[in-house]
Amino acid sequence: MIQTFFIIILVIVLLNYLLERFLESLNLSRMTGELPTELSGIYDPERYKKSQQYLRTKQRFALITSTLTFTAILAMLMSGGFGWLDFLFRGITSHPVWLALLFFGTLGLASSLLTIPFELYSVFVIEEKFGFNTMTVKTFILDKLKGWLLGGVIGGGLLALVTFIYTSAGSWFWLLVWGIITVFMVFMTMFYSNLIVPLFNKQTPLDAGPLRNAIEAFAKKVGFKLKNIYVINGSKRSKKANAYFTGLGTQKRIVLYDTLIENHTTDELVSVLAHEIGHYKKKHTTQGIILSILQNGFMLFILSWFIKPGSTVSAALCQSMAGFADMAVPQSFHVGILAFGLLYTPLSTLFSMFENMLSRSNEYAADRYAGVNFDPTALQEALKKLSVNNLSNLRPHPAYVFFYYSHPTLLQRLQALEKVKKEGSEV
Prior knowledge:
Shape: globular
Mean pLDDT: 91
Low-confidence stretches: none
Strand content: under 5%
Number of helices: 16
Largest sheet: 4 strands, mixed
Distance between the termini: 66 Å
Order of helices and strands: HHHHHHEHEEEHHHHHHHHH
Strand order of the largest sheet: 1-2-4-3
């Protein structure tokens, strides 16, 4: 069983890497030097050529980084690196909570440090070359330090609590952890913009004026109680634009990037906000939370069988992290959950595909809501500007979309909005 687990994990890691490469090659095969007919009127030839260069550059860079990550994981698995790391920390402490914190803390910090050169290249070379980067080195460093601090406090705190419950609660472990994760997830959904975002970005209430008046008029028209409209200084890091809806109940808010406001008309901005309000009206946020809760419960239930203290399966799972090294890896929560995470990858991929399918359906519904209740043409123009300004790939391969896209492609959304316009003209 030990050898079986090890082989299965190796095969999963390899197949996952090959699937990513295959899908990226399909996506690159759709690239063309000539402006496709269906994109005429959206991209001009020069801007389209730049978008193709941007896509090619990013995917080549992704190939390098993903290959290095794959190689590092494969080397750690085959050499028993995870087992050796566990052995090292057992020379410092035998307490399960401290072992888990040291084990995952070291892996997380090492991974973050090793990826810094690639992140620097991505931001200050690639994004800079294509005119998107506005981040300074100081901001990059501060972001990293704040990220590590948050990871240590929040991630470390949750890990310590979950490990303690594992060692204390027995068969009730997964239910208690499920409850804690659910409470934490709902709390963060409600207060993320109040507690976490201000550490990285400045959020200010949208000033009084034509835009705020137009947004409030639309919200009143559709019966959406809206008090919190904020502008976030996304230009601190990038020229790319976005908008999003967050929070629940009295904590719900709509956030506009300052870069979005700079490049769009009032009607286009209201149409984007109408789309976000559509998500709320269609209860997509609540739907997403419920699905996440159910998925977490399913995962934790399976996990409880794989890492059950004293079980043959749990012992074999931990021993699989010895790889080809001649060493004994004791059963433990931290090693078991790492091995389980690798084994769970295929199920995680399936869940992700389902979530993306549902998300794409929800995006169509939110677009339709905005088109019916405000103006489909304004939303079409806003989507075109967003895509062109961000140098988006407007002709991704359908298989790539199926696996990775949480939103329909621009052309699909434009076509759906054309149907809304046609329905409106027939009324």
